[in-house]
Design goal:
The chain is mainly alpha-helical and about 425 residues long. Helices cover about 50% and strands about 10% of the residues. The N and C termini lie far apart (about 155 Å).
Amino acid sequence: MDTQESADITQSIMEQVARLQIQIEEGKAEIEALRALANERRFALSSANKDLPARRSEMLESVERSIRHINTKWNSQHSKTVEARIFLCREAASLYGLRQRRRRKGGNIREDYVIGGLGIVDLRDLNRYSHGQITASLDLVAHLLMLISHYLGLKLPAEITLPHRNYPLATIFSPSASYLSRDVPFPGSGTPHPPSSSSNTAQDSDRAHRPRPLFLSKSLTALAKEDAATYNYFIEGVTLLAWDVAWVCKTQGIAVNNWEDLCAFGRNLWLLLVAPPPTVQMPSSRTPSPQVALGNITNDLASPLANNKGNLPSLFGQFSHGTSHSFLGGFETQDFMKGWKLNGPIKAIDKVKSALQSEMAGAEWEVLEEKEWGEELDRKEEEEAVFVKGGRRKSESTVDEMEADQLMDDELVRKEGEWKVRSGTNGWTKLKSR
C-alpha cells in the first residue's frame, strides 16, 4: 500500500513538472514575441521620428493653405457685403432727397442741407425754425438714420422708435434706457405712465426711461415759456438724434469731434451718404496696414483693406454689429472708438441747452414765413443799390444767380483720411426791437 501511494505521488510530481516545463516554454516564446514586437515598434518609432519634421511641416503648410483659402473667401464675401451696404445707403439717401445747397449771398456763403425738399435743422438755430418744419425734418432724418443703420448692421446707442400704431411720431431714448424691451406709451397721448414711488430715486428712474420727443406742437420759444419740462425733453431728444448721427459717422470713418459739428447733423449725413468718400493715404515705406486708420485693429480683421496698394478706400460699410468679420463690438475694435471726444451725449446736451437759452435771453426771434423771405431779400437788395454821380449801380456784393447756385467743393477739405468741414450758419431771422 505504501509503495503504491509513493508511486502515485511520484507520478503526480512528474506530471506537474511536465506542465511547468510546458508553461516555461510558452512563457519564453511569448517573451520572444513581445521582444520582437518591441523591436519592431522601436524601429517604427525611429523611422517616424526621422521623418517627423518634414511631415509636420507638410501638414502645417496644408492647414495654413486651407486657412488662407477660407480667409480669402471670407474677405471676398465681406467686400461684396460692404459694396452692397454702400449701394443701399447711398440709394436710400438719394430716394430721401438728401442733398446740399450752397448759395452766395452778400459775399457770404450760405450752406443748407435738404431732405425730402425740407431744410435739415441745425441745433444751434432751432429758435429760427417753425415747429412744423422742425417736426418734419426730424421725422425724415430719424427714418433715414434707422434705414441706414439697418443696412450697415449697426445698433444705435440711443434707440429710436419710429411711428407705428398708436404712436404717430418718432421718439428717442437715452442710451441707458435703450433696448429694454418694454411697451412705452406715446408721450403726449394722455396715457398715464405707471405709478412710481415718491422717492427721488424712483422719479429719476422714471425720467431716465421716458422717451424723448422728436416733434413739437408749438414754437420752441413758446414751449420753453409754457412747459419747461417738455422743452428740456425735446432738446435732449434732438441732441440724442444728432449724437446718433455723429456716432454712425465715427464708426464709418467720418470725424465729428466737437459739439459744433454735432449740431450740423444734416451736413454729417451728407458727408457720410452723398459726398465722395475720402481715401486713406498709406506710407510707402512699409506694407499697407489698416492700423494707420484704425489704431491697433489686426490685419486679419480688415484684410480686404490690406490688399490695396497706396490708397485705402473709406471705412464706410466696413464695421458693423451684424457680422463676425470686422465686428464693431469685438475686442479688436475697442481702440477704434477709444478717445472719441463725443463718447457721451451729456456735455453736448448741456451745450445745446445753454446756447439756445442764451439766444432766447439775448433777443426775441421771429421766424419768417416763405413769402416774407422774398420781401426781405428784395428790401435788402434795394438798400444795397447805390447812386454814383446821378447814375445807379449795384453794389459789389450782388452776384449772378448761376454763380450763386454753383457748388463750391473747395470748402470740403480732408485731413488724415477724415472729412473736416467749416462751420456755417443756416436760416433767415429777423430781430424784433425790444
